[in-house]
Amino acid sequence: MAGGRPRKAASIATLIIVCLVFFVDIANIGMANIALPTIQETLGYDDGSLQWVLTAYALTFGGFLMAGGRLGDIFGHRNILVFGMTLFNLATLVCALVQDKIGLVVGRAFQGLAAALTIPAAQSLVALSFDDPQSRIKAFGAWGAAGSTGFVFGPIIGGLFTSLVSWEWIFWLSLIVEGALQLVATSLLLTHNIPGASSQSLPDADKMPSKWSNLHVRLDILGTFFSITGLVLLVYGLTTGNIHGWKEPGVVATLVAAVCLLAIFVIVERKVAADPILPSYMFDSRVRVIGCAAAALTYAIWQGSNYLLTLQLQSFGFSPLSTALRFLPLGITAMLVNLIIPMLLKALGARTLLLASWLLCAAGLVLLSRMGSADDYWPLCLPGMILYIAGVGTVYFVGNVTVVATASEALQGTVSGVYNMFLNVGGAVLGVALLTVISDSVTSKAGGKKDSNALLEGYRAGYYGAIAMTVIGFILAIFFSSTKTNDAVETQRESSKPEQDRKSATRVVPKEPVAANG
């Protein structure tokens, strides 16, 4: 009993830290998104290259998440979290200083790489800090609410600084906040007895050489290389093909190379890699397979629709700040959803919530697709945003909890990395890239971007593409396991106990395993 209160306080401290990290990451995405038209005008991006400000972040984020989760499993989630925050600050400094199209994309790519280290580490710390299933669900609710809050304030802050100062200040502000947060996080995580964050996360000193010597095997360098290069070429081929034509030899060669590299990635994972970043056990559970597929669709709809909606509202004549304020109900809805869903999840179960959520999402996107002018914000855009984000937010939360709950403690970093990889790769490839290709293609055929009617038709086509994704998500949800999430979490807790005992033998302080206390 005496050790219960310190353990609880340490768990809460961990939760606060990682929620703040998640808040900053999500707010940064919203700030960059709302500033896109201004960035395009200042740096001279064309319509095809503008999306790289978003996709560069999403591709490195999603592509390295599996490796990021693995690094957390090897060296300790707290250590990788602190290192990732340092890298994020350096990349943000680059974004704030450069005045070049390529330089900004490179800075955003390294921001994504840094987030690939911090997010799975932070998510694993949430899971490891709460042994009780209901407490863990509530903790993930707070985690989701932190991201939703970042989504609320990110666009507003971005619109404010873009309108009143300059777009560069969205990165200066991120640097200031993240830098201060890093100082606090480093102090608390490295010096306090926080579950999953103490020095026991590090291997024994005499085992460090073998850890480093096998690092290339544990990280699956070949798999990471082929997955990243394949995805980058795929997105590049989609964007250039829409601009230069799908029969252009360079476009065809790029897409063929992308498919070949991704095929090699699959072969490497199945036949070559001793410790693959996309392990076969990810596909031996219906919950994991459908959860990861739903994750890809979730972020595809979210990022793709927000990208289109940002450009569309500003094409109606709204300023960046005015556009950001009109996104406010969307963010507030997402925040409320993350607070309510834990109760509904316990009462209704995962499959029922998923089915209802996809229906809400589709209804909201239908309303967005009917917008024709600035006057349609209140009757169509506002209710459309509320419905679609309520659906997307619920799918994200349910998938997050159920997929991570299927993993033992030793594998939670890897599993959360794979889950978040599907989220962000789906957002980059299926969302921003594919929906932009659909939208721009229809706009071009209808008369070009200088024709307001053609532009409107393009936006509608993009929303129709997102609606098609909700149909796929609904079909997948029909086959989702009817087992309630509470049972899955309880099963995970029981099955992870032997793994916790095994892991404790490899830590510096073997008497205090990461998640075994309390």
From TrEMBL:
It comes from the Eukaryota. The chain crosses the membrane at residues 12-36, 48-68, 80-99, 105-128, 140-163, 169-190, 217-238, 250-268, 289-309, 321-341, 353-373, 385-406, 418-438, 461-480. Residues 14-485 form the Major facilitator superfamily (MFS) profile domain. Residues 490-504 have a biased composition (Basic and acidic residues). Pfam families: MFS_1. InterPro entries: MFS, MFS_dom, MFS_trans_sf. It is found in: Membrane. Residues 489-518 are annotated as: Disordered. GO terms for cellular component: membrane. This is Aminotriazole resistance protein. It comes from Drechmeria coniospora (Nematophagous fungus).
